[in-house]
Automatic annotation (TrEMBL):
Signal peptide: none
Pfam families: CAP (PF00188)
Protein name from the UniProt record: SCP domain-containing protein
Residue intervals of the SCP domain: 36-175
InterPro entries associated with the record: CAP_dom, CAP_sf, CRISP-related
Amino acid sequence: MGFPSMLWPGVATAILVIWAAGITPITALPIPLAARMERDFTKAHNQARSAVGVKPLRWDPPFAQYADSFARYMIIGPPGTCEFGKEAPPTSYGMNAMVANLVTEIPRVVEWWTQGRRYYDARTNTCASILRNTCRAYLQVVWGASETLGCGSAPCGKDGRLYLCLYSPPGNTKGGRPFNP
């Protein structure tokens, strides 16, 4: 069976030329940011969730587009800065956000959020008052009732990026417990 060059005239020749020239094949090109975000955020979240025995999250592409828009909305400050903190509009989703530099790998963002586990007391179902928001970020990552995830980002400053993940249903509900949906 020959190469199906009839389907795409010239493609077989182009592929052979690329291969013969030693150019990196198409499959080795960098993965676009949106695809990396889906892969890396989903994997990192689900590893943290697996560690406490809760079901994995599903990636939702329209939800990720909304998270991307939300991240752009949250950026404040003059051009060249990486400040965020504009009050978020009311939403029925859980949210985690972090500003990082461009070289920060996505799994490190989730790792930063999960460092809050040391401030959570499962026995009393409370976060220590010190770094309470860090604890709440962790609880949102592992909240057992959450089912879908969508993450987005927005460039900010010279070398920064705001990463933002939304969760549905939201976590950290009053009186709720993270590992028992």
